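User: Structure please.
Assistant: Input sequence and predicted structure:
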Amino acid sequence: MTQDLLPITRVPRTGLPAHGVVVGDPARAAAVAALLDDAEEVSYHREYRVFRGSWRGLPVVVASHGVGAPGAVLLFQELAEAGVGTFLRFGTAGAMRPGVRDGDLVIAEAAVRDDGVTHQLLPPEYPAVAAPEAVLALARAARAADVPHHRGVVWTRAAFQPGLLPLFSYEGAGLAAIEMELSALLVTASLRGLVAGGVLVIDGANADELVDEEATGGYDPHREVVAEGVARGAVVSLEALRLLADADRADRGEAGARA
């Protein structure tokens, strides 16, 4: 009998773990999955590479969503259909705030919805906000690992490279970082009653900052300082999932005791 698979990602329609880390790059999904016990590849279709395993006893999904929110939202929707209820996006981003350095982590509290897809799902006034418990779990995991980290609002923008149109930079708005998919995850989670958050590794300055390209060599996300940040961020993401699961179990236990 043929297994019942979802149409876009080709993951099984049921039976995935309830907690997941989502990343852009299929190779990064494999690298994060390598940290798990008993990791196995569930599917690999288009940009969607999906693994499952366990982190310190917690069953976990690790999946890639590719570049850009329109494709990423398809993964989020199908993973939710398959049973994932808690999502943490672990990605890379450009710094937008002074003091946010290469290799640092940025824990998103909310996102600007400039993602190119959610405005076709909801009015622009609808917010893209991270679950408070996800923000706190990520911050706690980062502190425990002694990882440089910041909290703030991030800008999810559909276009990676600047074009002919002037780039509105939200100057003075205090945004921490710029990336390409998180607001789509946060909106999807709000619509479906899921828990979601995001942690991003800084891999360079955004295009509006005054960067001496001759001195720096331009944008290069493949430097050692970024690789070190990615390695730290993977552990922080997985540990934050465990903290969320522990807190959820504790809440259920208290509720049962009161009943």
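The domain at 19-207+219-250 is CATH 3.40.50.1580 (Rossmann fold).
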